[in-house]
Design brief:
heterodimer, A: alpha/beta, 4-stranded parallel β-sheet, 10 helices, 12% strand, B: alpha+beta, 16-stranded antiparallel barrel, 4 helices, 17 strands, 16% helix, 45% strand
């Protein structure tokens, strides 16, 4: 039926796009999941990535373009854990596409495949922008990517059974390369163990866990709440007692508060890519962590 | 016996609290297993309880070990190549009657209004106004508070109920509809009471508007906002850009319709919306809408019988650097209304054109702060001589209003606004100041473009 509407419409208007060549239409909410789809599905998927590395995935508008792309999707690949709660439900409601409704095979949530950290014990908006199921920024630890990759590969095979063998072999290949890369990153990152850092937004807990960094201060008094002058004074007082080597922020974040602290505490403030596309060098998943480590190592010397 | 059980439970609770997240994953299934067994053994098996206690102690020791390990992770030892796996699905809690509670949220707002002329006496010459189109009273007032309840009904429908409570303690059903979630081919059907999809602002709830009041064309020609009982069908075209068509058939009781429900002809409308991204930083939405309403002795203090045709063209442009609206962003929108009313007004045959437009721009110049300007204007045909002195008599005046807005947000859930309007809608000019707050509590709503 949909095919019929498609062809009739394209004949009638010439406005309409041709049905995609690929077997699965994927709508990825964040660039890291888009990059993972490329690794796992290659040309079997036609991909639309809803956000860029320079956008805050919490704060996206339910733009008309997103609705049109979600209408055509067979699969959404999103972080979940309420990261996209401010926009994705509106996009899904307007997209009128039952394949990607929550709970359907076409709705994939990466955060379901890893153990979430920082699960709040008190759910109260007075605590700032907290997420009931835990910190959603799971992509800062490459070990999580592998767990999500397994789940995503299985899901692709479920949705597009004809290519199940391709997905399985691509996952096996990715898994081998990824494990080798993790071993290399672990070796490279050895000097970072125990290094004290400050973060602008509490979005790095998974990376901190992975690399054995020590988070001393968070510049935001509460998640998503900009630093007040009183809080900045507290941060500076803490830093005078417990100095840090770096202050990190995501590429999409405004640098004002970290630069302010950086100048007064005399430590470098750096932007990490946070996701694919967050820096010129972070072109895919591998170069995302290459660049993250390179930046961290260079700044902590 | 009871004491032993309590001790075992206390131990289990203490254990759960003491373990680190990774240790918890290891022992969670153990504890769940033990709990299950304890339940089935709630008899007189003292010996088995003791046995379980011993096992719990063992698990606690293991958890302590894990905790000790976890605390040394920061020291330079080799880390695992694989992150801790997702916890095995926890045995779910027994189901309860309220486990399926819908998402509930509430919007509260209040304002303090100052105006140089008595708002109760101000009119819009050339236009008969609906019930809700009056200006706000002077002084403190509670705006409309809203409670919204929504959930999926089943696999095929969702339902949404929005009840509004006015400052005069009146309670009204603002929206109450069911909507399909499972239709193929990009179709959505809605039935019940809802805000019409015409125009741009109409379908948005008033609390989501940039300015706290409706612009002049909405006030004069739609009684602020058009909502009624009926059905709506929408179709989202399978195009690469956004293209949506919609049609509605409604009862015909809300202004500009009136009492048209008796003969069932009521209100019909149709609309088309389209939009997309211009580049990474900017996107747009345009729309064309048509609304046709009928009236049978519509009562606005004066009676009208006949039909009302209204055409609306809307355009919205939004910009944010790199598509990231946190620091700065801009939203520019405008709508043009062209209408015709034909029939008898106070017993006099009439056929007159009216038109109006507004344009507004709202700029977020720094996080949490926005500044906006809006200009609106109306035009109407001269009334027949027999209707001189009625609301259709435009007195040779062009109603206009120029508004300015300053907004501060403490979070995405709370806005504080100060607005000034140079209100030239009536022949005598009125200065209006409005200070207001609007907050949302409960379930996290997602806003439309």
């Amino acid at each position: 039926m949909r095919k019929l509407i498609f062809s009739v419409a394209s004949l009638a208007a010439g406005l309409f796009i041709a049905p995609a060549q690929a077997d699965v239409n994927v709508f990825a909410c964040e660039p890291e999941w888009g990059a993972l789809v490329i690794e796992l599905a290659g040309d079997k998927a036609s991909l639309y990535v809803a956000t860029t590395g320079m956008q805050d995935p919490h704060q996206i508008q339910a733009r008309p373009s997103l609705i049109a792309k979600a209408r055509a999707a067979d699969l959404t690949v999103c972080t979940g854990a309420e990261l996209e709660i401010g926009w994705l439900p509106m996009v899904l409601q307007q997209a009128a596409n039952s394949k990607i409704k929550a709970g359907m095979p076409g709705s994939f949530e990466a955060s379901r495949y890893v153990q979430l950290l920082e699960v709040p014990t008190r759910l109260d908006r007075a605590e700032g922008d907290i997420h009931a199921s835990g910190n959603p920024h799971i992509q800062t630890d490459p070990r999580n990517i592998l767990l999500v990759a397994k789940g995503l590969s299985d899901r692709l095979a479920e949705i597009d059974n004809a290519n199940a063998i391709t997905y399985a072999s691509r996952f096996a290949d990715f898994s081998t390369r990824w494990k080798a890369a993790i071993a290399r990153w672990n070796a490279e990152a050895a000097p970072l163990r125990g290094v004290s850092i400050g973060v602008q937004h509490a979005g790095w807990i998974y990376m901190i866990n992975w690399l054995g960094l020590k988070q001393i201060v968070v510049l935001e008094p509460k998640p998503g709440v900009p630093a007040s002058s009183g809080h900045i004074a507290d941060v500076l007082a803490t830093l005078s007692k417990q100095p840090v080597k770096l202050i990190i922020r995501a590429a999409y974040q405004d640098d004002r508060s970290s630069v302010f602290i950086s100048e007064r505490a005399h430590v470098p403030a750096i932007a990490l890519p946070f996701t694919v596309g967050g820096s010129d060098a972070a072109k895919d998943l591998f170069s995302l962590y290459d660049d993250t480590l390179k930046t961290l190592l260079a700044a902590s010397k | 016996m009871k004491r032993t059980q309590t001790a075992a439970l206390a131990l289990a609770v203490g254990l759960a609290a003491a373990t680190s997240p990774s240790a918890r994953a290891d022992t969670a299934s153990d504890i769940a297993q033990i709990r299950k067994e304890m339940k089935s053994l709630r008899g007189d098996y003292e010996k088995k309880i003791e046995d379980l206690e011993a096992r719990l102690k063992k698990a606690e020791t293991r958890a302590d070990d894990a905790e000790a390990k976890a605390s040394t992770v920061a020291s330079p030892v080799a880390v695992a190549d694989v992150a801790p796996p997702a916890p095995a699905p926890v045995v779910s809690a027994p189901s309860s009657a309220n486990a399926f509670n819908p998402a509930i949220s509430a919007i509260l707002n209040g304002s303090y209004n100052v105006s140089s002329k008595d708002p109760g006496t101000l009119r819009v010459p050339g236009f008969a106004l609906g019930d809700e189109a009056g200006l706000r009273d002077r002084g403190f007032s509670l705006g409309e508070s809203e409670v919204s309840i929504s959930a999926n009904v089943d696999q095929a429908f969702l339902a949404n109920l929005i009840v509004s409570m006015g400052s005069d303690d009146s309670i009204g059903v603002e929206e109450a509809y069911i909507q399909t979630t499972d239709l193929p081919g990009g179709f959505t059907v809605k039935a019940g009471r809802f805000l019409s999809g015409i125009g741009y602002l109409n379908e948005k709830h008033a609390h989501a508007w940039d300015f706290s009041d409706a612009p002049l064309p909405y006030r004069a020609m739609l009684g602020n906002q058009y909502g009624d009982d009926g059905v709506q069908a929408r179709w989202l075209a399978p195009t690469d850009f956004f293209l949506e068509f919609g049609a509605e058939w409604m009862r015909g009781d809300a202004f500009p319709a009136g009492n048209a429900d008796d003969n069932g002809s009521g209100t019909v409308s149709g609309f088309v919306h389209s939009g997309g991204d211009i580049d990474e930083s900017s996107s747009f939405l345009v729309g064309a809408s048509y609304l046709r309403t009928k009236s049978d002795q519509r009562d606005t203090g004066e009676t009208f019988s006949g039909k009302d045709d209204l055409f609306i063209a809307s355009a919205v442009y939004k910009w944010a650097p790199n598509g990231n609206p946190i620091q700065t962003n801009l939203s520019v929108s405008g709508e043009y209304f062209l209408g015709n009313e034909q029939g008898t007004f106070e017993g006099v045959p009439v056929d007159y054109q009216r038109s109006g437009f507004y344009v507004q721009g709202v700029y977020q110049f720094m996080p949490r702060w926005r500044f906006g300007v809006r200009y609106a204007e109306l035009q109407s045909d001269d009334a027949p001589l027999a209707l001189a002195g009625t609301s259709l008599d435009n007195a040779g005046h062009t109603p206009q209003a120029l508004s300015a807005l300053l907004e501060y947000r403490t979070s995405e859930f709370a806005r504080f606004r100060a607005e000034y309007t140079l209100d030239d809608a009536d022949t005598q000019s009125n200065d209006e100041f409005v200070f207001s707050y609007t907050v949302a509590i409960g379930a996290h709503g997602a806003h439309s473009f």
